[in-house]
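I would like you to sit down with the pair of lines that follows and say whether tokens and residues agree.
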Amino acid sequence: MCGIVGIIDPRAAAEARTLERYAGAMADALRHRGPDDAGTWVDAAAGVALAHRRLSILDLSPAGHQPMVSADGRRILVFNGEIYNFWALRSDLEKHGIGFRGHSDTEVLLAAIGLWGLEEALAKSNGMFAFALWDRAERVLYLARDRLGEKPLYYGWVGGDFVFASEIKALRAHPRWRGEVDRGALTLLLRHNYIPAPHSIYQGIHKLPPGHWLTVPGAAADKPESVRTTVYWSARAVAEAGVREPFRGTAQEAADELEALLRDAVRLRMEADVPVGAFLSGGVDSSMVVALMQQEGRVPARTFSIGFHEAEFNEAHHAKAVAAHLGTEHTELYVTPREAMQVIPRLPELFDEPFADSSQIPTFLVSEMTRRHVTVSLSGDGGDELFGGYNRYFLGRSLWNKIGWMPAGVRALVASGIRAVGPARMGRLVGAVQAALPARLRLQNPGDKLDKVAEILAEPDPDALYRALVSHWKRPAEVVIGGHEPSTTVTDRSGWARLGDFTERMMYLDLVSYLPDDILVKVDRASMAVSLESRIPLLDSRLVEFAWRLPLALKVRNGEGKWLLRQVLYRHVPRGLIDRPKTGFGVPIDTWLRGPLRDWAEALLDPARLRREGFFKPEPIRTKWEEHLSGRRNWHYYLWDVLMFQAWLEHQAA
């Protein structure tokens, strides 16, 4: 795991030492991603500089140093990530007479591109990665990102130079940086709590989408129209092919094939020349990974969990029970609210652009604790999207089944009636009725819930209902001054996979939006902030392709998700240790905002400050803030989106 940066000056006006200084300064901003080694490569005549920060995982010797030059001197590579099947690729390459200096996957990838070309090398590579390749003969730069988007890659133009980097903070180190906030991206942040690719918080800076490579001709690198993007792996094509040609074996045969794929994916991700461990929450996904890791390893697996003293947020005891059953070497850390809140001032620096998934806090804390013991950690992310685990898959279908039969006009009329009464008054009316009911039957915040019912009733179709379920601010362009919502993978229906089932459409949209732009961003930034490499076996592309071939009935059954994954897990862990309601990996932001974080939030949401900064209209934000403080409504998701931007903005000005 590493950090990569690069510059193309199409004018080739800068001296070599100037380019080296620029690229070196940019790479130094990524030292946390690669504390073990650093290097730069410059071709001043072409105006090209590449730089690298290395976290040594495979081949700790100088033979793994980057930027790496091919044996014939034609290609130069900077690489972030891992090619898990590099030993098999190396064996194939050696059959063609290719020799190797060391045993790094970077050297194998470089040789594979030289022999087979970029497209075939990518097709053969099983890994998580973002890399840049300069071809001296073609005078072309290639950027590529892995299939699911595990590793980040930003690119854009700064002062006439084409630049790229693993994180935006490296781009800001360019001496001619003049970043301007993209107000369209800001509206997307308020809707989703993250900024979807290809957008970034800055105008002119983009994220390379997963499964793509980018071609940049060196002499025309200052002309955006000359940059060409190519898809080499498509989640849409995989989903459509899987549904079109489903797995036709028995459930037992499906479980056997799934376990074989899982076992190989875990085995490949245990390859390292440094200590390897795993995050363990005690849920289905992480327990599955750890169970197979324990069997594949020569020594007990090292597992790590974080716990909270608040029972509704704590899963550590479940993880401890699974670890005890499997016999892992288990470490857990119980965190106090004060320790968790101490992370908040660091979030703008850790996440580099505004990011408002509050589970970023425990993710960072478990990464920080894990890094004290190992350099690589496996995680169970991806299981919900692939095997139907999120509660919204059941809630969305259930809600639409209940309201879909009603004519759209009738639903809209009922929604308007609820809104006309208003959530506060409606809450009082329902509260008066509830007073006669037993405590167990009373709704908490009934006005809040009825307002959400009105939102749902107003949606015209199930796909709009999905968007409502995954949205925070429902009309964010009315909150951001000069804001508008750019098109995204969620709103551009022309790009959706053709899937007839509503649940499968929700799973697909999560796979191409929420997973890469929220979950994987969170895991990458939190782990790399402490120089920990996180690997995700469930996102092996072979597993993704197999999961889409599985009929939905093998994933969702009897109101429960991950059915087939559970059947495999029960072979290794007793059902009683696993079967329980799904809980999120979160912290009590709602109560913290009313208590210990109140003064911090009040300063960031001060109406005079909001007007002075000029990004938000204060009125809707202050209304939600006051309602939240009073306890009448829970607006913590909405407010956290705004607060994370405000904290980020303050950090940029510091």
